[in-house]
């Protein structure tokens, strides 16, 4: 849910056109309305500024002061579902991988978030620029964090020297994605990240 653990618009680094001072209450209402409509089954194609404004209880001009078009708003709304990356202790590759994957588990564990992301990603082919911007802002930092830990593990000898870094990232993140999309409804198991990491390390450790 948009709130304590989610990224704020300021944290996502989204650009804003110049204008009158922002109302955080109005901005939150608009973001929540966008996510609510998506979670209720409205696809990006059917989503309209009019529908968002009506659900948020604001005028369309209030939205257009903050976002120049629907795609900009959707990118910002989806980005709020991604929590900030956790601090890494750096004591072991295993511990750091578990921390990163557990952050993914917590993000995906919210049923509303999972529903929103599934609906939004189902239309990715129709909105390639939207997907590209979302991946660059919210997904790529997580991929890079995984790459950094894996590369550190190769350098320290904790992981195989011949390990394909990109494949390692795909194995770890792909397992989490599978569970979030196809796993049982409800919260993901609290030990899921640890189990995924240990299963992967059995194949990629020296």
TrEMBL record:
Task: Please provide, alphabetically and separated by semicolons, the GO molecular function terms listed in this UniProt record.
Answer: DNA-binding transcription factor activity; transcription cis-regulatory region binding
Annotated region (Disordered), positions in chain = 1-25
Q: Where is the HTH tetR-type domain?
A: 24-85
The record ties this protein, via InterPro entries, to: DNA-bd_HTH_TetR-type_CS, Homeodomain-like_sf, HTH-type_TetR-like_transc_reg, HTH_TetR, Tet_transcr_reg_TetR-rel_C_sf, TetR_C
- What keywords is this UniProt entry annotated with? DNA-binding, Transcription, Transcription regulation
Transmembrane stretches, by residue range?
none
Q: Which Gene3D superfamilies does the record cross-reference, listed alphabetically?
A: Homeodomain-like, Tetracycline Repressor, domain 2
Pfam families, from UniProt? Answer: TetR_C_11 (PF16859), TetR_N (PF00440)
Q: Mind listing where the DNA-binding region sits, in residue ranges?
A: 48-67
User: SUPFAM superfamilies this protein is in?
Assistant: Homeodomain-like, Tetracyclin repressor-like, C-terminal domain
Q: What is this protein called?
A: TetR family transcriptional regulator
Species for this entry: Nonomuraea polychroma
